[in-house]
Automatic annotation (TrEMBL):
SUPFAM superfamilies in the record: Pentapeptide repeat-like (SSF141571)
UniProt keyword terms in alphabetical order: Membrane, Transmembrane, Transmembrane helix
InterPro entries xref list: 5peptide_repeat, Pentapeptide-BTB/POZ_domain
PANTHER family, A to Z: BTB_POZ DOMAIN-CONTAINING PROTEIN KCTD9
Keyword field contains Transmembrane: yes
A Pfam family hit: Pentapeptide
Protein name from the UniProt record: Pentapeptide repeat-containing protein
Membrane-crossing residue ranges in chain numbering: 61-83, 95-116, 128-148, 154-171, 183-206, 212-239
Protein's UniProt keywords contain Cell membrane: no
Length: 271
């Protein structure tokens, strides 16, 4: 290592520091706490990472959990209100078509959430499902808030649906941070749960009327399927958190770098 400039970070607390793009060839990080550090695009030829501790820092973990909580509380409240308001509508109501539209959106979003959990985000089908789920989640939020702000004006609500869906399309396609991806996964889980509730409520009402009892059986089966998809979606959120990158070496040059006895957790290094 004597051929390199000496950068001594041994045994230091370096949590959440950014070394992005820096030239640190031969640097000594032995025994350091590098949780939450960003080494993206850094030159780390011959660097010493013996006994380092990598992974999510407390700050990163709090940010992730806070994002999940905001999505669960925010979107969960919206989905709950939409479902509650829909329960009082009947086929002769002027809003019945919107009830059908929202229920359909919820079910498609819930199905997409389940497909994402099953196929994963790396497969082509999984990526499409993530996009569909995020767009429809945004559409529901936009529909609800613009509808409320416009005193239940259907045109404004539909415009809000379009705006919310477009915004989430932009977020999903352009904002590639892991925090955004985890938040989108959390939103997908909420829609899957909402779809399960709608189907189970419909099944319950159909089962109580003899003439449409067979439809009640069909909707009961669908509600069980969506319940399974909802569980998979919530586990997918947990998995996303467990696999979140805390210490990033993305595109870093790690030629001859030393990682003896290092605690490599939640990093994107392939060793």
């Amino acid at each position: 290592m004597s051929n390199y400039p000496q950068h001594n970070f041994a045994d230091r607390d370096l949590r959440n520091r950014s070394f992005q793009g820096q030239i640190l060839n031969g640097a000594d990080f032995s025994g350091a706490d590098i949780r939450g550090c960003n080494f993206s695009n850094a030159q780390l030829v011959g660097a010493n990472f013996e006994r380092v501790k990598t992974g999510l820092s407390r700050r990163q973990l709090i940010s992730i959990l806070l994002a999940i909580a905001i999505v669960f509380l925010g979107l969960g409240d919206v989905v709950g209100r939409v479902i509650f308001n829909a329960q009082g509508e009947v086929p002769s109501s002027r809003y019945w078509s919107f009830v059908i539209l929202l229920c359909t959106v919820l079910m498609v979003a819930g199905l997409a959430a389940g497909i994402t959990a099953i196929c994963g985000k790396t497969s082509a089908l999984g990526r499409v499902a993530i996009a569909v789920s995020s767009i429809l989640s945004g559409a529901i939020v936009g529909f609800f808030y613009l509808g409320v702000l416009s005193n239940n004006n259907p045109i404004a609500a539909l415009a809000g649906m379009l705006a919310g869906g477009s915004l989430m399309y932009f977020v999903n396609s352009q904002w590639h941070s892991q925090l955004a991806k985890i938040a989108i996964a959390a939103a997908a889980a909420i829609t899957a749960y909402g779809a399960t509730f709608v189907l189970s409520a419909t099944a319950s009402s159909f089962l109580s009327v003899e003439i449409i009892f067979p439809w009640g059986v069909v909707f009961t089966f669908l509600s069980l399927v969506y319940f399974w998809l909802a569980i998979l979606s919530f586990f997918h959120v947990v998995l996303q958190v467990q696999q979140a990158v805390g210490t990033s070496f993305k595109r870093a040059n790690l030629t001859d770098a030393i990682f003896t006895k290092a605690e490599l957790r939640n990093t994107d290094i392939d060793r």
